[in-house]
Amino acid sequence: MCRWLGYIGDPIRPEELLYQPERSLIEQSKSHAPDVAIANGDGYGLGWYGTADGPGLFRSASPAWGDHNLRELSAQIRSPLFLAHVRAATGTPVQQSNCHPFRYGHWMFVHNGMIDAFPRVRRDLLMQVDPELFPAVEGSTDSELMFYLALTFGLAEDPVGGLERMAGCIEAAGRRIGSDHPLQMTVGVTDGARLVAARYASDTEANTLHVSSSVRDLRLLYPENERFQHFSDEARVIVSEPLVDLPGMWREVPAGTALVVQDGEELEVPFVPRAA
Questions:
Q1: Which Pfam families match (predicted)?
Q2: CATH of the domain at 266
Q3: What are the φ and ψ backbone dihedral angles of 30, each rounded to 5 degrees?
Q4: Residue 58 is assigned to a structural domain of this protein
Q5: d(CA 71, CA 180)
């Protein structure tokens, strides 16, 4: 399985989450997940919002743990919102165009999971991508196709609804070929103003997803921890697996749930695939 993280809050250097925690994303990439025999060595990516009109993107097909360019870059930039991903391929080639995050306009997308029997449903799903979006599809992975299906089904106007219609489209395609469990996913998507995440699986075993607790509450729990003094009150981190082992630091997102982290009200709503 892949791992990913998303951050939103006051600007920080990405290295503070990619490298510095005891169970940082880079440390996680070196060791395989439970019941998975391979590490996350099939590429990585970092996407961030800065001074340009739209997000920056740095991706490579090499293992994240050995790339000094990523370490240098993540120590120099500061961003109020970024996504990072380490990949374990599920059948599609190890190449840069298949590395997350995927970007279209102001939007970025990361995914952990898979579409069941993807070679058999790929053509059906590709034909449902909006023709105006289709030329932007660069790679061959199921994750990128999920992103463009979500864009096709209204992600920009209704992020959670667009993701639900994407999931419904994939489940319908899978069941047409007899798949019992067409979709496994945790996804993160952002337009630079909000961070949206969802955890869902067609069967009962959804890949894990966690969100950090209120920084204000964490300061009260751990007044001696200087790191919590550094983060802004509204900062949130969404991760596949916890980065540090501190009681009260993380809350597991229930399966079948979507989160919307943004200025003002933070939303947690049921995630239910629906017809596209």
A1: GATase_4
A2: 3.60.20.10
A3: -80, -25
A4: yes
A5: 42
Instruction: Check whether 141 has a pLDDT greater than 80.
Output: yes
**Is residue 155 one of the residues assigned to a domain?**
yes
**How does pLDDT run across 6-32, given as a tens digit for each residue?**
999 999 999 999 999 999 999 999 875
What percent of the chain lies above the pLDDT cut of 90?
79
Domain count of the chain? 1
Q: Which domain holds residue 31?
A: 3-270
**Max alpha carbon distance in the chain (Å)?**
56
DSSP3 helix / strand / coil % (the chain, rounded to 5): 30, 25, 45
Extract the tokens encoding 96. 């840069």
3-state secondary structure of 189: strand
Tokens of 47: 């996407």
**DSSP code of 213?**
P
Six-digit token pair at 24?
């940082």
Contacts of 111 (CB under 8 A, 6+ apart): 2, 4, 100, 143, 146, 147, 185, 186, 187, 188
In a domain, 60, yes or no: yes
Rg (CA), the chain: 18
In a domain, 275, yes or no: no
**Pairwise CA distance, residues 208 & 255, whole Å:** 8
Is pLDDT at 142 greater than 60 in this prediction?
A: yes
pLDDT over threshold 80, residue 230: no
| Residue-wise pLDDT tens digits, 45-88 | 999 999 999 999 999 999 999 999 999 999 999 999 999 999 98
Angle in degrees, 0-180, between the axes of helices 118-126 and 159-176, rounded to the nearest 10: 120
